[in-house]
Every structure is written in C-alpha cells, then in structure tokens.
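## tool: complex_structure
## caller: assistant
## args:
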Amino acid sequence: MYSTQWSVNELAKRQFFLKLNANGAIFTMLIVLQIIATVFISGAVTTTSMNDWGEPISFNFTSISNDAQLGLTLFWAFIVGFLLTSAAQRNESFSFVTNRLTFQLANFYFFCTAALLGGVTTVLLGSVMKIIAMFRDNMIIETAGLLSSPLDFLSRIFVMMAYTLLLMLIGYTLGSLIQWSKLFIALFGVIWYAFTQSTFAVADNENSGLLYFYYGETSILLFTLKIVATIAVLFAISFFVTNRLEVRNP
Amino acid sequence: MFITILVPVVLLLGLLTIIMVTKNMGRVRIKKSFHWKLITGYLVLLLIGLVVAEAMEQRIEGVNPPEVGANEVGFDLYNAIVEELPIPKNLVLAKRSHEVEGKFTISSFPGAYILIKRTPEISGTIEETVYSPELMTMFNGEDSMYYDLSDQLKINLPVWNSNSMSVPKQPENRLEYTFYHDSNILNQFTGEKTHGNSSGSVSGVMTIHLLIPDTIELDIPDLDHEQNYYIDILE
Amino acid sequence: MPAITLKNVTKSYRSITVLNQLNLEIRENVITGLVGRNGVGKTTLMKMVAGFIKESDGELRVLGERPFNSLKVSANMIFIDDMMGFPDALTLGDLLTECDRFYENWDQDLAMRLLKYFKLPLSLNHRVLSKGKRSTFNAVVGIATRCPLTMFDEPITGMDAGARRDFYRALLKDYLAHPRTILLSSHHMEEMEDLLEDILLIDGKDSAFHGSITELQEKFISLQGKENVLKQYANRYAVIHKSSAGPLTEWIVDNDHTNLELTELKQAGIRVSAVSASEAYLAMTGQTRGGVDDVFDAMERE
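## result:
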C-alpha cells in the first residue's frame, strides 16, 4: 500500500522543475533590470579638457562597458537568494512531495540555473554595448571578442557565473538565518558595518580585505576552489537552518 | 560611511520593488509560458547581438590607434633639433621650402613654437619643418601604455608669402573617443583589466623649425611670454 | 499495523505546551474524525503527522517512519488546509499537472471532472479564487491524490452548504473505491458523522476519547419526558444537557444505567433513546451545559 518511495535525487529534480515553473517572473525581472541598465546607464562619460598655449584642445572620451548590467545582475542575484527563503516559497514546495533536503537541493539547482543565465546574458550584453559603442565616433575596442579569444570569452562567463552564484547563496543564507530568528538582522547590521569599515575605509590599501580574497585571485584554479569552498560553507549553514524549519506555521 | 548606509538601503528598496512587481505580475495573470518565451527571445536577441558585434569587430580591426609605451611619450623635440638627433617621422607634419625676397617678417602669432636656426648659406630659401605636438591618452596605468592620437589633431600650417610668415589661428580641436571595455570583474583571468582612461597628455604645440640663411634680414616680434607665443633663435 | 502511532508525544512552542504526553494509534484505512474545540491542538497534531513541524518529545511514527523530513511519509501523505500555498504563477490546470508529477496515485481524470463539476475553470489562478472556491480546489486535490494517508484540516472553510455536502459525498465515494487512511477535522460534526468510523477527540492537551463512533454514542443516552417527571426520576444522574423545546424536556445523561434503572425510567413515561454522535461530542466537550448562557445568567443574578 505504502509503495511510493522516491529517491532524494529524483524528488530534488522534480521540485527544481516546479520551482522553475513557478518562478519564471524571477528571470523576467533579470531581463527587465538588464534592459534598464542598457538603456539608461549606457556608459560613463569622462571628459578631459586640455588647454595649452591658449589653443583649445578638448579631448572627450566616453568609456562604455557592461559594468551597469553586471552590477544589476549581481544585485538581482542577491535579492533572488533572499526571495527563495520566503515562507511562501516554502509553503509552495511543501504542498507537494518534499523534505527539507530536497527543498534545499531544488533551491540550489535553481540558483545554478539562474547563475548560468545571469553569467551568459551579462557577457553577451558586452556585445550589445560594443554595438552601441560602434555607432559612436572613433571607437576603440579594448576587449577582444569571442572569435579572437574564445577562451577569454568563456572565462568571463565562468567568472560571472561564479560571482552570481556566490551572491545568491549569500542572500539565501542571510535570508534563512533571518527566517530562523529575526535577531540575525541586528547581527548582520553589525557585520556589514564592520565589513564596510574594513574594506572601503582603507581604500589606499586595495590589496587586502575580503573582496580581494576573490577579486585579487589570479589563478583560475584557486579562484574556483575558493568559490566552491565558500558556496559549500554557505550551503551547509543554510541547510543547518532549513533542516529545522517548520512549515505552514503562522 | 556612504556605502555602509547606501547599499543596505538600495538592497531593501530593490527587494520591496521586486516583491511588489512580482505580486502585481500575479494579478495581471501572466501565463507561465510568457516568461520562457521572453527568456528565449532575449537570448536569441543577445546571440544576434554577439554575431553582429563580432562581424563589426572583424571589419574594423586594426582601426585602434597605435599603442605606445611610456618611453615613447614626451619626445624631447627641442633637444633633438638642437643636437640634430634623428626625429621620428610621424612627428613631421610638413617639410617645405620658401623663396624669400628681402626682409623676412614673422608676425605676431599664438599657438606655435618657432625655432630659428641661421645658416651660413647665401640664398633666399628658408627651409621649414613643422612638427606636430603629441597627444597621448593613457589606457593602462599599470604598464604605462598610451594611445598615440597625435595624428588626430587638426593643425593649420603657417601661411607664407614672399616676405613674411604668419601662424593662423588654430582650429578648435574637439576629439571624441569612445572606449569599450568589458567590466573588470569579468576580466579577472583575461589579463585585460583596465584602469580607466583617466589621463591624457598633450606635449606643447606645433613646433616650427626654420632654417634661415644669414643673408636674410629678420623682423620678429619681441619675445613676450605673456602673449603665448615663443620664438627661439638658436646660435 | 496502525497508520499513525504516538507514544507520549508532546509539542510545545517555547513555553506553551499544545499537546501533552499524547498516546494514540490511528487505524489504517479508516476515516477518523479529529474533533475538539478551538485551540486544543488538532492542527498541531496533523502538522506533526505531516512532518511539517517537529514533535518536542516522545515517539511519533507515521507509516512506520518518523515523519519530520521523511520522504516516504511526504510521498504517501497529503495534508489539506486553507494555508496550503500554491505558486502564484501557476493556473489550476498547471497545479493539477504538478500534482500528477508528484503523486503516484494521482487521478487526473477525476480531478478534472470534479473541478468541472465545481465550476472551477482550469485557466484560473489559485490566488484569485474566493475562500470557498479555494477550499473546494484544495479538497479536490486532497481527494484526487489518493494518498494512503490523507488529512483534511477544516476542509470546508468557506464552502456553501451544497459544496460541503458534495465534498463529503465525493470523499466517501472515492474512499469506498480506494480505501485509505483519512484524518478529517471539522467543527461541523453533524455534517460528517455519517462519514466517520472513528472519532478522536482532543481536549485539554490530550486525547479525551478515541474509538469508533458507536462507542462514542453509547457513552450517553437521551431521556425525554416532562420536566417534573425527569427531575423526579433522573436527578440521580449527571445531567449533561438540558433542552426544553415544546412540552418535553430532553436530558442527555451518562450511559451508566443498569437495566433495572432503565426499565424504571421507561415505566415513568420517560423516553430513553440513543444520542447522535454530534450530540455526544457536544456533551463530551461540555459545550452544552449552559455554555455561554451561563456567563450572561450569572451577570443577571448579581
């Protein structure tokens, strides 16, 4: 009679597809944010004017990059991580067959998919920005494209995916802890204050601090190891919390 | 301090906006297939963008201005002329000779630096060489690499007639350049991190080097540094 | 083998104990009514069985496993209540498809037919449904999943009388065709008593009664007669319920009379009859001993 027995893997997969079906709006949100970044914040303009010997020489240069798209994508990633810890998300999953492990795994698969999309679109938006730049005068392209250096192109996608996934898990872990106890909000406030003070206050020494731990890494292998280790730790912390969460509790 | 407060506020606002928007999306009942169609369409669009960008890039390859290192910036033209050292060809804007009758007058001029060397020859011919100023913009502060944009400067050459030379008013130079560079975060492993195109440099103004035979009498304005012109007679 | 076993199970939220040292067994393939007054812990018990919340102490076994984080329990169980969350982005039709992917015994055809009968278009969104329609949809899901353990917590909230009757009827019919363990909680005992086999009455953090519905009925008898006669003959017994409608007064009293006593009562012109399950339930929970009237009566006397 009680024959139904799922494997964790199979259920995590099904929960993942349920999540994809239910959260299409999250991807639409990414697209909207990226379009906003492309249309409204297309490139910072730096102007240098030089006057020498009374003869005006003004030299304006516009730097265009996909910084804005990248920034908004990372911002989106953090928020998505946070969003998936909401009580509604949990209730939706627990309306179907799941336990806390498959729920957590499904969320993780979802993050991987979202990071893949975030990584690919951000790097591809670079090409769109290039096209925008090419309609202007005197364009200088400083970043080689896919054909001239395919490995570099792939490494960009990889780096972007790694950072997107990292931010999603940070958001997810923070969200989980806050779901567990609201006291964590205060704790995070303190940690954030300490973090900014240590990272940005000593701007003269840019080769130190937490950000440099990832951003300053020049070996792709070590970088991957660092990211994977961090994600594993965040996954463990969030699972510690998720595994205790009570569902449909008002 | 600024970041300490701003980032959490922005994140909170973002979270609220996104929650509101997703709530409203539920209300207008967007079908779930809409999202997947949108994503597919968007990806296709981006891929087309990639192809177009690649094609355009192939077409304009080599258009980037020459890159020069720090040692090539700021060529000491004065010294080279005085010491009669070789001068890079790309600095030479014009090399002309003019027949002059009688007294040679140089009228008051702005925007040029004139070096006059008297030659012991007996003739009525003045050899004129005009050198362009350098316009460099630094694009890589770490390795001190510059783009050489000197040839982009518009310069009006001196105007000659039978017994005088004048430097016309120089046109206004408005150079517009657009740089495209992928975000530095993406370029962590490509060695293409940029440090901003934040500095440019123009070395002086055009230099006019005149070889004037001793036989020609000179009428030049008084040297007056406050009026932005300069004439130097080399011994 | 019992479907659900509780041994000394306690559930407390911080300092508040909701269920204390609960011991019971729910039989397999039986419809059990879970009744009790508001806030006695019916929902807590069901959520614990569903594995949504964790027991604080004691041993809880559902289908032989501890339900918290058990995939087996989750796969073989469905818990329907009005807090049931469904993704906003999915239509009712999409939700049925998801159910089909998750529940092995899911009967898509039955679900579609029931939704059609209850006039719930598949293109609608779960969130835009009215309270009653939402309860109806959830109930249909509960029936069509055919889980070996099916739990309904107040499934009829917001449903109109017709929908309530149809729901009970549909549940019974499907249960007869596909027997399973059903746990049903409701305040409307009189509506569901035809359906129930067993009754589990929770009162005061503990199980006050657990047994078949006839056992519950046999705990009480109803005495009907003229009030003065009743007072003369029946005042020796604990009167649980008095009602005086018309010339006759009805008392519901503990059924611990000997046959001699019963004959005596009958000879005095008192009609002795069995009580309905809902009357027994009301008597058990003391909801009828004067109830809220006592509060006002007491105030008037002062």
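## assistant note: The mean pLDDT of chain C is 86. The interface with chain B takes residues 88-91, 94, 125, 127-128 of chain C (CB under 8 Å). Handing back to user.
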